[in-house]
């Protein structure tokens, strides 16, 4: 069973040889092939080769083009600074004042900017592993993109001070994200991930008004294109779990501070949960035995279709043996083997 078959069967609730591994890798992937982050963010070939390398080395069940939140913002016209080997920085919000929205023009994902670079990465991956490994593209949620353009603090104030203006901005953002998703699906993406991290910083009522309707529109459009969807909201999303279930996402990532068992109860058979052990305390700082036990725990409480993943990006300095422990835990779980009932959670199964 290849990765593509495994993921699609798992989503349909059919038997698989092991649960899928949907870890998000960005900085780790770049350094795994010895490349600085500036090249990973700006050269689709580096991004694609890094993802192919980690997929093969750690038996991931996807390759991905996620990188940073500023691709759309850069093509809108924002000035993005790329340190040699660190995260990109937006030097100044493009919408310094509300009236700046009048001059904002929607970027075209096909015209050679940073959005086009992600589309090129998707096409490159399709040529290499299409039909064998799912290819996951990525877009910003409309509210997250609005924060990228306006600045987080300013936008949070705008939600109170000028909600109608925010909706006007969101209308522009949602159309750009749908167009960006379409370009990636046409290039070969099987899944479109959507990051909406600001959504964990607002009330459930505000999520229902300013985030959820736009997530729903993007996901509905992606489904019409024939692709699947994944929702990723950083932070504690406990208060908005029932609304996230209404987003239209097929797969929903959950951070480590969310009760995974409770989320699985809220979601029911669909959407499927993904996660949710701590990427720092467990994957980066823990032992292989702790990783193994955490993977098993999440699989046991996350529902019958749950996907395995650290709850957010794999940190850049994660020990390789911890990623191999996750792989082994998934194999053992698929074989129906039970870990030892000791504190280490070691496997009784034969290593693969």
* CATH fold group: TIM Barrel
Count of alpha and pi helical runs: 15
What is the beta-strand fraction? 5-15%
Distance between the termini: 15 Å
Low-confidence stretches: none
What is the average per-residue confidence, as pLDDT, rounded to a whole number?
A: 95
Question: Please, could you describe this protein's structure?
Answer:
The protein is of the alpha/beta class and 352 residues long. The protein has a single domain, classed as TIM Barrel (Alpha-Beta Barrel). Helix content is 49%, strand content 8%. The protein has helices at residues 3-11, 27-32, 37-42, 44-58, 71-76, 114-129, 142-150, 152-161, 163-187, 204-225, 241-244, 260-267, 279-284, 288-301, 320-335, and strands spanning 63-64, 80-81, 89-90, 135-140, 191-195, 228-232, 251-253, 272-274. The strands form two sheets. A six-stranded parallel β-sheet has the order 1-4-5-6-7-8. The chain has a two-stranded antiparallel sheet with strand order 2-3. The model has no long low-confidence stretch (mean pLDDT 95).
């Amino acid at each position: 069973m290849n990765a593509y078959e495994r993921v699609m069967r798992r989503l349909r609730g059919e038997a698989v040889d092991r649960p899928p591994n949907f870890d998000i890798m960005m900085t780790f992937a770049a350094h795994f092939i010895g490349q600085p982050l500036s090249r990973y963010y700006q050269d689709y070939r580096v991004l694609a080769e890094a993802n192919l390398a980690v997929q093969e080395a750690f038996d991931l069940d996807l390759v991905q083009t996620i990188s940073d939140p500023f691709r759309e913002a850069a093509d809108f016209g924002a000035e993005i600074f790329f340190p040699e080997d660190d995260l990109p920085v937006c030097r100044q919000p493009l919408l310094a004042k509300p009236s700046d929205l009048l001059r904002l023009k929607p970027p075209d994902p096909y015209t050679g900017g940073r959005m086009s670079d992600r589309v090129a990465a998707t096409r490159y991956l399709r040529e290499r592993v299409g039909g064998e490994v799912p290819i996951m593209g990525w877009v910003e949620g409309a509210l997250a993109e609005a924060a990228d353009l306006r600045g987080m603090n300013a936008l949070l104030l705008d939600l109170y001070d000028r909600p109608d203006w925010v909706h006007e901005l969101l209308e522009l953002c949602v159309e750009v994200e749908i167009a960006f998703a379409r370009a990636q699906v046409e290039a070969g993406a099987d899944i479109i991930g959507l990051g909406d991290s600001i959504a964990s910083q607002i009330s459930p009522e505000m999520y229902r008004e300013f985030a959820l309707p736009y997530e729903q529109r993007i996901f509905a459009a992606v489904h019409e294109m024939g692709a699947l969807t994944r929702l990723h909201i950083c932070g504690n999303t406990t208060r908005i779990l029932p609304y996230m279930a209404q987003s239209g996402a097929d797969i929903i990532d959950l951070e480590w501070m969310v009760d995974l068992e409770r989320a699985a109860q809220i979601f029911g058979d669909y959407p499927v949960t993904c996660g949710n052990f701590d990427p720092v305390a467990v994957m980066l700082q823990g032992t292989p035995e702790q990783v193994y036990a955490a993977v098993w725990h999440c699989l046991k409480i996350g529902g019958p279709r749950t996907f395995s993943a650290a709850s957010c990006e794999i940190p850049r300095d994660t020990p390789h043996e911890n990623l191999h422990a996750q792989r082994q835990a998934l194999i053992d779980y698929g074989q129906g083997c039970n870990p030892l009932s000791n504190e280490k959670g070691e496997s009784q199964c034969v290593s693969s």
